[in-house]
Write a structure and sequence with these properties.
Length: 267
Amino acid sequence: MPSLDVDGYPIAYAQAGSGDPLLLVHGTLGDQRSFAPQMEAFGAGYHVMALSMRHCWPGTWEEGGDFTIDRHVADVAGFITALGAGPVRLLGHSRGGHIAFRVAERHPELVRALVLAEPGGELDESLGGAPASGRQAGGFSAGATKIAAGDVEGGLTLVAEQTGGPGAWSKRPEQRKAVSRDNARTLIGQAHENRAPYSRAAAEAVRTPTLLLGGDRSQPQFATVLDALERTMPDVRRETITMATHGLNHDNAAGFNRAVLAFLATH
């Protein structure tokens, strides 16, 4: 399995195709396998690389303070720099969408085009968010507590239902459940990352051409974030993936892939 060293840590990735680089950043409890339905389609036109973030499979969880948005933003930026291929097309889903957003905000010279698939996180007051709501972090913290106590299935069920609604875990295919189980203990680190909310200033600073994607059956908190970013980001378009919940790249992979490729073809 290929990897690139970033600040002394091997960032593993899956890859397909050749051409200009297209990087994919997974969300909570995910890894490079989270983008299995995209690799062949994207690899037909790009050198697509699906990253496994620090401490996610095939890496191992280690107790410590570096499972944070800031650490992972630095890792993605370092990975792009190590490629030495100039600015890349960057796609992030859920927590990975938040990471991709921050890479574009802090390192605009590294990103040619940006795709945010239901980016995770909350809004601050400048974007109409409630003061310090912490709803998402609170739910993940409860799941992490269960996992730390040995109730992995209970913790994963809590997280899945917060992002996907009632019964989301029981409806999930076994292949996707296995990925979450392999990364379950990373939730312990994520629960304490103190993720900064999206702000108007940050959204206005991202001038990279951006595609926002949402599922038509997703939980309302994701549409709230997409609405705010659509109103505020300078160069943005938005599409809805039909027959899709938060796992939109799996629920309707063909529709997801078409939307992404059509956007990237113009950038």
